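User: My instructor asked us to take a sequence, write out its structure as tokens, and then describe one feature of it. I'm not sure where to start. Here is the sequence I was given:
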Amino acid sequence: MNSHSSSVHIEVANVYKTFGKASLKKTVLHGIDLQIGRGEMVALLGASGSGKSTLMRILNGLHSLDATEGAVVKIDGQVLQESGRLSPQVRAIRSRIATIFQQFNLVGRMKVVTNVSVGALYPLPLWRTLIGLFPRTTELKSLQALHQVGILDQAYKRARSLSGGQQQRVAIARAIAQGADLILADEPIASLDPESSRKVMELLVRLNQDHNCTVLVSLHQVAVALKYCSRVVALKDGRIVYDGPTAALTESQLKDLYGSDSDLVFDDLETSPGKSKQAKTSSKDIPVFNTEPSRSSHEVYAS
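Assistant: Let's start with the prediction itself. The structure tokens for your sequence are:
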């Protein structure tokens, strides 16, 4: 665990997940045991079909785990689901979890600031959320979050008018506005160009280092994991086959993990700067956005 992680934030024990019925059954997770400490930034690696997205969806309660004896998922010590049943407190627990998807999960016809304000849904009455009527304080918080990710000038544009990289930054702003302390990023850079990918990963690092958010990010790009994450959890055929320091991953382990795609992995590593060792990304190396801009600048946009 990182030096600033002092408690277990994610705890997974004996988790299985099966889809389908009878002869069409397929088990995609097999006895997963995992602990991630508060404040860690962990990469989840594995080839397509290894179970990464399924595990992510179990961690936020979008998939229920199999009703296996002893199967449990805890978030910050609270049971999210156990033996196939979601906790009655699942909504409250989810309010502290932000999930960032590959396809952004924004409402394209809505304004950017409205998409961000959705992050504050939990404490608001249902009728307000249904009609998109948010308190002024919520809108100001959303504008501040957009400022932090560098796209305040896009606040009142429709989300569908933004580039892919900008839309993913909107999703990160939503996590900031939500006040989440656990970020689950499911292949957040898979559809982005290299420059947009860099900006997104650096924003995730800032959330981890400056806000002490726990970040679990699933990636196909081993070079990105080497640069930004100190720990890797690797899945193959629904089982954890590696859990340890990113820098300790060997060529033979990567070949076993990615099989026929391993040549593409090594090509990616060869073309990435600093491939020989993990880059220790510091928030000092990342372009700094003013995290507390003047209130009046937000009110100009909100007026």
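For the description part of your assignment, you could build on this observation: The longest strand covers residues 8-19. Try explaining in your own words what that tells you about the chain.
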